[in-house]
Amino acid sequence: MPLKPQLLAATILAVGGFYPDGGHEALAGSAAPRGARIERVMAAADLPDTDTLAGKIRATQSSAQIPLPDPGIDDTAHIVQFDPTAEAQTRSPTPPTAGAAEEPEVDESALRYFAARGDTARLKAEIARLRALYPNWQPPADPLAVPQHRDAKLEAMWRLYSEGKYAEVRRAIAERQASETTWQAPADLLERLSVAEARVRLVNASELKQYDTVVSVGAENPSLLNCADVDVLWRVAEAFVKTDRASRGQDAYRFILKNCTNPAERLATIQKAAALLPYESVQPLLAFEKTGTDGSREFDSVRDALSRSFVAEANRRPEISIDATYLERVKRLAANDTNGTDSLLLGWYYLRHNAMPEAEKWFRTSRDKSNTASASQGLALTLIARKAPAEAEEVMFRWKDDSEDASATYLAATANLLAGDPPPEVPGPVLQRIAAAVVEKRYVPTAQQMGWYARAFNQPQAAIRWFQTALQWKADDEPSAYGLAITQQQLNNHAAVEDIRRQWAGRSQRIANLGLLTSPPPATTRQTTPPTATAVEAPPAPAAATAPTVSAPVRVAAQRAPGPKVTEKATERATASKGNRTDCALGTASAANSQQALSLGWCLMNLNRPLEASEAFEKAAQSNVQSVREDAAYGQSLAYLRLGLTNKAAIAATQTPQTGKRAAELQTAILADRAVSAFNAKRYREALVYLDQRARLSPDTTDLAVLRGYAYMNLGMYNDAWKIFEFVAETGNSDASRGLAEIRDMQNGYR
Amino acid sequence: MRRTFSVVLAFVVLLAAGSSVVRAAEPLVPETLWAAYKAKFMDDSGRIIDNANGNISHSEGQGYGLLLAYLADNRQDFEQIWYFTRTELLVRDDGLAAWKWEPQASPHVTDVNNATDGDILIAYALALAGSRWSNAGYLRQAAMLARAILQHTVVTTKGRTLLLPAAEGFAVDDRADGPVINPSYWVFEALPIMGLLAPSPKWEALSGEGLGLLKRIQFGPKHLPAEWISLSTQPKPADGFEQEYGYNALRIPLYLMRGGVTDKDLLRRLREGWLQSDGVSGGIIDLPSGRTKAVLDDPGYQIINHIAACISDGKRITPDVRRFNPVLYFPSTLQLLGLAFVTEKHPECL
């Protein structure tokens, strides 16, 4: 041992704040977060005088059969006994009082006992201990040769002690005191016994996670805390950490690394410290690492494991920044890692530190080595972050039931996928499995997005069912209610709209505003069934309704005017700043800037006042913000379309470049309007040209198909007209049936 | 400064050890009986073994062991049992004893919760031993334990001062039907000593409440208390426990008598509810039906009836029940406690 145990212990405790200036006040004072420990220490201090107490207890025992001894104890002595530090004192070997006239008698019984047993390690330790206690003492040249006045009973006690039979030592001491009333157990034996018992108690408490007990036993037995028994030091360190005193735990680990020499124990110490202490507390401890003569460093064998654990910790606590060498080491490990765990660690590290491309790379590497839920989840998150939700959905699908986290990630991918702008083309089977998962997990965000998605693809009935489903799961989901309301309005289900408005009165301004629209949305809203089959499946039995795969989105521009995101944003802004219809209608003068003008434009569009809206959009189009200009041009085109000013709409649409989706949307709407105008002007061939142009962008809606039929009819192309009417009439369209009847009548008339 | 104190302390210890102890002819638990008990139920580590329960140990057993060693006036055995108790069980952060210790388990303590009757018995035995043998260490430990008992298990609910069976699991917040109590955890004779160790008016209130509950609570045709009673509303058998008067409860009359309670009606009711047709044995009584689930004919159980009969009717305890032939830990313990009681307080019964 490099230092005397007491000294070492004192160092730990002093650093730990136990005995900064001696005495138990420091212990009690330092224990602020834990009441129990203070309580116990103070309990000892507050005890009634034991003499009085003993007398009172005796008085309760009326039996006179066993006469009680006269305590005859000096009162002043009792004050000492209630000082908790006094106990610790008596347990430490008490050096002779300085300046004592007589040389103390040195108890060599332990020495002789260890010598007789040939226990040289203990013998040496005992000689060192006695020398420290008695500087003038000389060890016997040959402990075995020393003529002993043998004390067989004491020898037996030492034997029991060395066998760890402490209960029997206690028993033997009590037994001998009973038979030899003047016999006193050697202070050495009592001290060692006390420390050994304290060790048993400390270990038991540690095993049972009674960390306050561990700390207090350690504090009361400083001689336990030394390099000869590193296990105890580890347990005390752990107890400190587990009782919110990490810095004292660190002190204990530092003490070991600074003072203790056993290589295996040092290695275990740094591992234990890394497992229990935060990264920043472990780094100073690593500075105690020793370098061998050959340049090797003593913690080399655990550096891989340490690096991994630091990277993992940085994943849990992204606020810390770890040394790049640890990251580099894990990257090197990842290169040779066959099961992908190191790559996975790096993936999460970069994800948590917002380095998404790096994260994606490592997750892909890991997933290639081993497709795990964690790697897939990490990859999916990076994909969602870079707006590739379709692949995220694909990656997570297999793992969606693996854990709650995995499930949440999958569902987030589906919501993001459907909310894409423009709405992506989702293959039928994927849409089906998303629908199934959403229904199974009752996931509201995606159910709502299914509604918007169905709307986007002109499937109002499916949209209604999805919005209703979302509301069933979450009655206060306002966007779903709004989606439901505008879809019902589109279908002219006024009673249903009124119902929703009533339910949401006072809770949603934009739902309230819906009733103020003077006319239903224009164009082809009468249509209830798309010409082709259902693309977006509706709950609750998505699997039952076998939907043909939709190869291309079926879109009708005017029907989605404007799309959910735009509408929501715009009206929210409008209602937030203005609040009601009157304010909305104040006119362009009230719009201080182009952003407000844009909001106003959408607000007016919602009120079906396209003329004023077009003025607002005109003003917004002056913005120097690209996105506002785009939105304004888009809005203006829609406003002109609604006013029937098709050419103006076309011009507005070309003024600012639109996104592909919007451009197509506007183009189809403009062509439809032009076809209608040409038809009304009896320019049927022109109408057919517009319809053909439009059909290249998007299949005919039912209304336009009917229009096309009449154009053929008016041009005398009855066979073509008949085919169209027949096809459309199958959907129950009365205009088409009438067209069929008219052709039939005409042909009958010719006969 | 401290060094001087410790020298003085050493002197004190010397004085105490040196003072002349006058030995009585026979302790309350005679040496031969204690030797037989010890040979059967105590091991070298100072562990008291419950041989009817897979040779486990518990705080109750350690408490009984300490109390019997004290009653046998055997300091070395006391010291030995105390060693096990403090190193193996008295490790909880709150100063109470972990209740259950199993020889085959690791760690040995398999339930770190306490059992309050065990804590009371330990503190009580330490207090008696510390005062008789002038051992300030025992007294100090007794006082600390009593304080922990008071702080963590004595509660006042709706004006009632109650003893919770453990620090965890029985309080109002721990169970839907909490608080739940066990009347056999009231070691009546120990409560005044607890009051000396950790002065508080609650101890006296606790004695009164315990006695009051026993007088009031009568379940089933036998009018006996349940072992586990919910006091959330009107007293009723607690959920999840057998509704019986069993191994816990059968100690109640012994504790009452040892505690100096002389309420004849109460003692008679408990005895009549428990007594079997042979006139001496006790039983495990199913409370709703009043039926006997098992007859308890060990002299350790029977002696409880005998003592009660002697006190009320003056009938002497028959030799077969006085004879100590330890087989099982629990009845053997009760038998020695019963014998010690009559030896001290009712020698006319022997």
TrEMBL record, chain A:
InterPro entries: TPR-like_helical_dom_sf (IPR011990)
Region (Disordered) location: 85-106, 515-579
Ranges annotated as biased composition (Low complexity): 524-558
UniProt superkingdom: Bacteria
Classification via SUPFAM superfamilies: TPR-like
Identification of the protein by name: Tetratricopeptide repeat protein
Originating species: Rhizobium oryzicola
Automatic annotation (TrEMBL), chain B:
EC number: 3.2.1.4
One Pfam family per UniProt: Glyco_hydro_8
Keyword Hydrolase set for record: yes
Catalysed reaction equations from the record: Endohydrolysis of (1->4)-beta-D-glucosidic linkages in cellulose, lichenin and cereal beta-D-glucans
Signal peptide: 1-24
Keyword entries, A-Z: Carbohydrate metabolism, Cellulose degradation, Glycosidase, Hydrolase, Polysaccharide degradation, Signal
Domain of life: Bacteria
UniProt cross-references to SUPFAM superfamilies, sorted A to Z: Six-hairpin glycosidases
One annotated GO molecular function: hydrolase activity
InterPro entries noted in UniProt: 6-hairpin_glycosidase_sf, 6hp_glycosidase-like_sf, Glyco_hydro_8
Family: Belongs to the glycosyl hydrolase 8 (cellulase D) family.
UniProt-recorded name of the protein: cellulase
